[in-house]
Amino acid sequence: MSAEAQLIHVEVVYALPNEQRVFQLVVNHESTVEEIIQKSGVLSVYPEIDLSTNKVGVFSRNVKLDATVRDKDRIEIYRPLLADPKEIRRKRAEQAKNAGKADPVTGGKPSPLRKSAEAS
């Protein structure tokens, strides 16, 4: 296999609420995700990235830092969540229930069929 055939094209992406950056690289096909991220320079541009805590993925699929990638893969560095989505949904449902906007039995949206059945 020639040296050129062993090279692959990859992208490293990192997104903030108001800014998204894409780093394009040509690397050896045996490079790990961690090596590619370090080579990309994203860690020097965004020093808040900590690979021991930030999760990474390839095309929205979580991968470990020692994983290898294929040609044209996009490595994504994820920011930590500010709030737990399950907790937010639970609080929103509780507020709707307390405000009378939720079905008292199921906790979901009131069913027009249930109300018509209760009225009869």
From TrEMBL:
Cross-referenced Pfam families: Ub-RnfH
Signal sequence region: none
InterPro entries assigned: Mopterin_synth/thiamin_S_b, RnfH, RnfH_sf
Region named Disordered: 88-120
Alphabetical list of SUPFAM superfamilies matching this protein: MoaD/ThiS
Source species, domain of life: Bacteria
HAMAP family documented for this protein: UPF0125_RnfH (MF_00460)
Family to which this protein belongs: Belongs to the UPF0125 (RnfH) family.
This protein's name: UPF0125 protein JCM19240_1560
Organism the protein comes from: Vibrio maritimus
